[in-house]
Amino acid sequence: MSENEVVAGGGDGDFMTVRHLTCRGSQTEIGRAQAEAAMATYAWKPLPAEPLRARARRIWFERNWPQHAARMRGAAAVAGVDPGSDAVFLDGLTGLPDGSACSVTFCPPAFTEEGRGLIGRNYDFFLTSAEALFALMSGEQVEDTTPPMASLPYVLTSVPDDGPATTLLTMNELDGCMEGVNEHGLAVALLIADAENTGTPELAGPQVGLSSTQLPRFLLDTCATAEEARLALLGTKQYDLGTPLHYLVADASGDAFVWERGRGGVEHIIDANDAALCVTNHLLHRHRDLAQLPEDNAETMLTYQRYRTLRERTDRARLSGTALRETLDAVRITAANAQDYPARTLWRSVLDLGSRTMSTHFYLGDDPDGAPRYSEELSFSAGAAVTVP
User: pTM higher than 0.85, yes or no?
Assistant: First the structure.
C-alpha cells in the first residue's frame, strides 16, 4: 500500500484548502487511508446503527458493490471496531451533510475541436456552515461560527489492485464524490435535480442501497461504458435523504445520458442522442422543450437561465476546451447574481474523457469589488499525481 496527501490548492486566508489524496493498493487498504483522512480532516467517527439496517446494508454492499464493502473493512480497522459489527455504520466518511446546485455540459467527441468527449462542470454551493445552511433552509437565523461545510474538499486518486483507477472530487465525503472519471473514460457528475421543490434535507441516516454521493463512485468502480451504467442504475437500489439529485453520465465514445427519478420512484434516462447534453437544477424529463421553460424565481437559483445559456452556447458545431471553460464562467454563481443566497461557484472542472483527466480551479474568496478569486487550474489524472499545465 502506498499513499500520499498534499495540499493542491488554497490555504491559510483562502475560503478553502483543497487536499489531494493518492492511494495505491487493495480496496481495504484504500478504505483505511480514506478513513484516516476523514478522521483527521472531518473528525469522522462511525455512526450508531440500528442492527438490522446495518446488517442489511453490509450484505447489500457485499453482493452489489464489493469494492465499497472492502473499503468499509479498512475503515473498521481505523475506527477499532469489528468489520462485521451491526452496532455502527462504517461508511459516510464525513462530518457534514451533502448537496449542491451546479451546471454541467457534455460535448461528445464529434462536437469538440480536440476530438475527445469533454464534460464541463460548475459546482455551486453555499459558503456557510452546516448549521447555518439548515437554519437557512428552515427559514431560521443562527450565528454562523463554525467552518464552512465546503471549505475542505478532497481530490481522491485511487489505483486499486482489483479495479479501475479513478480520480474523484468530493466536497466533504471521502467514500462518495460529486464528480470523477475512471481509467476507462467513464465520467459522472451529480447535481440537485428539482430546485423549486428541494425542501429541508431529511436527517434519516444511512439506508440500504446507494446514497446520493455514493452513486457516482459506484458507477466509476463498476462500469466502463455509459451502457453498462444504464443497466447498473436500473438494477440498483438508491436513496436521496430528501434532496433529490440527478446525474450526468458519459463515456469516451460519446455515449451519454442524464439519470433522474421522478414521482412514485419512476426512473428516467435522458439520452444525449449524438448531441451536446446540458443539465442544471431542474428535472429534464419534465422540461424537455427549451422554448417552454418556466421563468426563474427566488427559489430556483437561476436554473432555467443557466440552462438556456448552456444550450445556446453548445449548439455550435464544434466547441474547444477553452470555449467550454468560457461557457461555464458565463453561468457561474457570483456575489452579483446569487439572489441573496450565500452561494458561489466553488469550482469549475473540465473532465477530458479521452485523456482520463480532470482539470479544476477552486474558489478562494471574493476580491474587494466582489469579483470571485480562483486558484490556478490543476490537472488530475486517473492514476497519476497532480500537475499544473
Answer: yes
